Amino acid sequence: MSNLDREAVPALCGGRGFVVAEPVRELLSPRRVTLGESTEVRRLLPNLGRRMVGAWAFVDHYGPDDIADEPGMQVPPHPHMGLQTVSWLHEGEVLHRDSTGSLQTIRPRELGLMTSGQAISHSEESPRQHPRFLHGAQLWVALPDTHRHIAPRFEYHPELPAVTAPGLTATLILGSLDGATSPGSTYTPIVGADLALTSGTDVRLPLEPDFEYAVLSMSGEAHVDGVPVLPGSMLYLGCGRSELPLRAESDAGLMLLGGEPFEEELIMWWNFIGRTQEEIEQAREDWMSGMRFGEVKGYDGGRLPAPALPTVPLKPRGRVR
């Protein structure tokens, strides 16, 4: 999914200097952003106070939206570099096209994972005949310097492993959790899991003390380490945890995001992640001139133009403002 802000603001991310080394409970409120003509999302990362969780650098939550009489998601072809995109649905369908030739309909709890590497472009849209409701999350994972120039690729994994406990099913999106490992490609120590809890569940989820974590609420009423987390909000948890208490007041859906704190400092502007202003400027120029990012074939419409670059210098800094 694209960052469609008309005036894209650079997010200065990464570096270990601002990682919270002990458990915390920091509730992050979303910023509302309109995508395309009809889809509104709640943006949790980058946030005013926190830019990353492990290598997770961008989190949008959208829906549930009733799109029975609407076109639904319509995101024109746009570029990416230096990152992976994760498409994750609870309801609805999204048709993915990209410049490697991929064409795939993604359905609830199926993993669509796109690795941009040096350059890719893609579009996302609700199919013409689509389910009534659309509800999901779009996430980006920053690629480390050793892998950010690899060839682009798209992976589709309709079957994913799960960890179960009384009242809990944890589906592995990326990385490993309690002995289960996702088939999705990763390039840093990371975890992403979809947590489905039934009403009345009270469990403890095993964690890695060296990882930092956050939990995004997708639906229902749940308490994370004693903190009520409402749908569309995210609780940052810091590091130093070996387990996480979860309690559901109703059937609830959560997403667990975590990983080793990302050591490199980054510049994230529009749909690009780089290390220097020169890289970002070149990527924008290449997209606008039709170079490098390839062509998305089959999309009925034009490409998304890049916004103007900011007048202030782009400099990589820390993880929080």
From TrEMBL:
Fe cation binds at H78, H80, H122, E124. Binds 1 Fe cation per subunit. The keyword Iron applies. SUPFAM superfamilies: RmlC-like cupins (SSF51182). Its EC number is 1.13.11.24. GO terms for molecular function: metal ion binding; quercetin 2,3-dioxygenase activity. Pfam families: Pirin, Pirin_C. Its cofactor is Fe cation. Residues 41-141 form the Pirin N-terminal domain. This is Quercetin 2,3-dioxygenase. It comes from Streptomyces jeddahensis. The gene is yhhW_2.
